[in-house]
Amino acid sequence: GEEHYNCISALHKSMRGSDENASLYWLARMLEGGEDPLYVARRLVRFASEDIGLADPLALTQAVAAYQGCHFIGMPECEVILAQCVVYFARAPKSIEVYRAYSNVKECLRMHTGPLPPVPLHLRNAPTRLMKNLGYGEGYKYNPMYKEPVEQDYLPQELKGTDFFKEQKT
Asked: Of 36, 88, 104, 126, which has fewest CB within 10 angstroms of its CB?
């Protein structure tokens, strides 16, 4: 019932708060109460990107490995895999930079009126002669061919200068 959601919330918030002891407690309470370890592992995959993100990019690898380990061996053996992952996450630095930036992009898309801006011609592939004649791919600079970063716009003209990593006004 409701305790299912209360316990996963407590686990999530304990890891977010870097409390490894409470994190282990809530994990054990869920697993010893019969919770599906794959459910917990899926939530850890989400936590890795939502709460740790780029502060420790290996967190996502840890979460996926924990999920796979749980899938391979099941309970009760996988409990230590989940415990290791939970402690790793509690101890990890946290960053919601990507989570916020992606939310800002979604908000930008929701708030847009009218048709969405087209993909700039220079970013389009030109697999046919007609597409080449229409200017698809024209002027595109293939970055690996340059020693220095290239100046090139990647957003539609209407969004030029937009930085989704900065706080957006709602």
From this structure: 36
Direct distance between the N- and C-terminal alpha carbons of the chain, in angstroms, rounded to an integer: 35
Give the whole-angstrom CA distance, residue 106 versus residue 53: 18
Q: Which of 81, 76, 79, 18 is nearest to 47 (CA)?
A: 18
DSSP letter for 122, please. Answer: G
Q: For 87-131, what is each residue's pLDDT tens digit? A: 999 999 999 999 999 999 999 999 999 999 999 999 999 999 999
DSSP label at residue 167: P
Contact partners, residue 118, CB within 8 Å, separation at least 6: 156
Locus of tokens 């919601």: 96
Residue type, 85: C
User: Among 36, 110, 44, which residue's Cα sits nearest to residue 71?
Assistant: 36
> How many residues does this entry show for the chain?
170
pLDDT band at 1 (very low <50, low <70, confident <90, very high): confident
Place of tokens 């630095």: 93
Nearest CA among 134, 116, 112, 113 for reference residue 125 = 134
